[in-house]
Amino acid sequence: MTRIAHLTDLHLVERRPEARSWQDRLRIQTISQGRPIDSERPRRRLRRAFAEARAARADHVVVTGDLTEDGIPAQFEVLAEELHAAPFAPEQITLVPGNHDGYTSGDAFEKALAGPLAAFRVTSRPGTAVELKGATVVALSTTIHQHWLRAAGELGERQRRRIHDVLHARERRGATVLAMHHPPFTFGLRLGWLEGLLDLGFVRTMLRPFRSAHVLCGHVHERGDHRLGPARHARLHTAHSVAEDDRALRLYDAIDDRLVPSDGPVPFALAMRAFRQSALGEA
Ligand SMILES: [Fe+2]
Ligand SMILES: [Fe+2]
After folding, report:
1. pLDDT of amino acid 139
2. How far apart (Å, rounded) are the C-alpha atoms in residues 142 and 180?
3. 69, 178, 213, 238: which could form a disulfide with 234 (CB 3.0–4.6 Å)?
4. Is the CB of residue 77 less than 8 Å from the CB of residue 122?
5. Which ligand lies nearest the alpha carbon of 152?
6. Cβ atoms within 10 A of the Cβ of 29, count?
7. Higher pLDDT, 232 or 189
8. How far apart are CA 274 and CA 254, in angstroms?
9. How many angstroms is it from 71 CA to the middle of ligand 2?
10. How confident is the model at residue 283 (pLDDT cuts 50, 70, 90)?
């Protein structure tokens, strides 16, 4: 059985944010919406979350965006330092970018994957599918270059086609885990253009029939479990922000073609299946 750890919204800040110009400080203070501009605290929380994921015997870690506070190269360097010190190999970590990672430039994440995050490129390049035992993790980017007063995202037609192809190829062969920052539901002020997923309707319609589809998201900074349709349809899971919460880590077990939160009730049939897998060595 594969166990997946889910972390999100790290909002990492460079080592010396006080060295910025006053205009830049004003910008980052506005973007952070009241989070302290502190280099150390989010790093400490990230280290603790990685240690907890290791102790929980997670096989793979998915980090669903807002990796940095405003996407400057120095913040991606801080992220790379933390990831290289984490108790997981680079091939055990999938990263996806969020709206904050695109505030300085639209291709900041791609540049980081070619630079300090190069070791994570093989599992994190948007569109990549990572095959695990009983689950496939697909890295997706919803980042668009936009003004920092806006927080929207979009998958776009190419990535939607990619998801469709993976879901069809993987049907009945384990859970498909779609890692993306913006959740495909309406939330908050329900102002999709301002802070939501722009192609929400397309994505929900595409995912709904697939019971093996599980979307791991960030952005809302809240833990939640949602269905995209009736009982046997796609599901999505959100988590607290690592930057803001000491209990941000979520864990899920891949059982059959489902991803089951280990902090929630496990349906009896799936519990029996998990028991047979671990005790009797069934595939
Ligand atoms: Fe965030
Ligand atoms: Fe976000």
Report:
1. 98
2. 7
3. 213
4. no
5. 2
6. 14
7. 232
8. 9
9. 12
10. very low
What tokens does 223 get? 């833990």
Here the tokens at position 155 are 């998958």
What is the 84 CA–ligand 1 centroid distance (Å)? 22
C-alpha pair distances (Å), 145 with each of 27, 101, 169, 211, 245: 16, 9, 32, 33, 27
Q: Which residues fall within 8 angstroms of residue 98, CB to CB, at 6 or more apart?
A: 9, 64, 65, 66, 67, 142, 143, 153, 181, 182, 218, 219
- Give dist(CA 171, CA 268) in Å, integer: 22
Asked whether 66 and 195 are in contact (CB, 8 A), the reply is: no
Q: What class has domain 2-280?
A: alpha beta
The residues, any chain, with a CB within 8 Å of residue 169's CB and separated by 6 or more, are none
Structural tokens at position 23? 């205009």
**pLDDT confidence tier of residue 254, bands split at 50, 70 and 90:** very high
Residue 181's closest CA among 146, 153, 204, 157?
Answer: 153
Distance of CA 137 to the CA centre of its chain: 10
Q: Is 260 buried (19+), middle (13-18) or exposed (0-12) by CB count in 10 A?
A: buried
Nearest to 182 by CA among 62, 61, 8, 35: 8
Calpha distance 192→143 (Å, rounded): 14
How far, in Å, from the CA of 122 to the mean position of ligand 2? Answer: 23
